[in-house]
Design brief:
Layout (H helix, E strand, L loop, with lengths): L4 H30 L6 H37 L14 H6 L7 H9 L3
Helix pairs in contact: 1-2
The structure holds zinc ion (ZN).
Length: about 120
């Protein structure tokens, strides 16, 4: 792959920043929901529901931030775009769709089949 990673890196950093803001916003909303005083029972369930949704959402976003951090680290180490499993280059097309892929499509499929 001859593509300049500086551009990829910038993209990842931008995405990381955006995710970080989203996570923060989720936490803010969670806190606001939690400080709503004592809602009646009808409201209570919707508050719990919203908090669960937000909690799950922020967990997913944090996972994504971790993925991005790992990708940035691999760019720095010169391991970016190389499959962790078979050490073959991951197709540029795949890296474009999923910039923080750690496995080539074959290995990823194998891993998913084995239930990890
Ligand atoms: Zn592989």
């Amino acid at each position: 792959m001859t593509k300049d990673f500086a551009e990829v890196k910038k993209q990842l950093l931008d995405e990381r920043q955006a995710l970080f803001k989203e996570v923060q916003a989720s936490y803010e909303t969670c806190r606001e929901l939690g400080q709503d005083g004592v809602p009646d029972i009808g409201d209570m369930s919707s508050v719990t529901y919203s908090r669960d949704v937000l909690f799950n959402l922020s967990a997913t976003q944090k996972q994504r931030i971790n993925d991005i951090d790992a990708a940035l680290e691999r760019i720095d180490k010169g391991e970016y775009g190389v499959c962790l499993e078979c050490e073959e280059k991951i197709s540029p097309r795949r890296m474009e769709v999923r910039p923080f892929s750690r496995y080539c499509i074959d290995c990823k499929t194998d891993i998913e089949k084995s239930g990890q």
